[in-house]
Design goal:
Strand content: 5-15%
Structural class: alpha/beta
Mean pLDDT: 92
Number of strands: 6
Low-confidence stretches: none
Number of helices: 9
Length: about 190
Amino acid sequence: LEEVRIRTLIGAWECLRNGVTTLQDMNNQLPLDEDYLDVVLRAYADIGIRALFSSAIQDVSNAQSIPYVCETMPPALFAEFAGPAFDWKPQIAFVEAQLKRLTPGSRFYWALGPSGPQRCSAAMLEASADLAERHNLPVYTHVLETKWQALEARLNYRRFDGSLVRYLADVGLLGPRLNLVHAVWLRPDEIDLV
């Protein structure tokens, strides 16, 4: 955990020395762990930077979200490459428990962080939308960062006209609380919808 503390302090120091006084940390750490979370938040408090913090959650592995990888690899190799699947319910429960356990202060705020719609089941995204609504929290999710992801969306989300934005609307996340991280490959109709 000392390495986590030092990593966090270095990142925060780099922000501060370059004039950034507030950061948004979508902390990517599975399985979720309170001790890890406490070390990160304590480091931010100790250095004095403002932080909008979310634990990244996902129940679909990165490999499983790429259909071509699934189809072309031998099953045993794919299972090793994809890693374990994480159930969404314990992740949502963990995040909600942290919201109740750690009260935000003047320099620390909560957000929700479903990793990306292609890496989350509809049930997880719906639960995230519900949690955001009940606790009035912003939501950050990675959407259409690369041409590859845009192609995947067009192929895998045909039911939603090939649109991750329409999919996010369908699961109840598209709204004033949602922040689309990166989102450089939106189509004009998706921009209009946003």
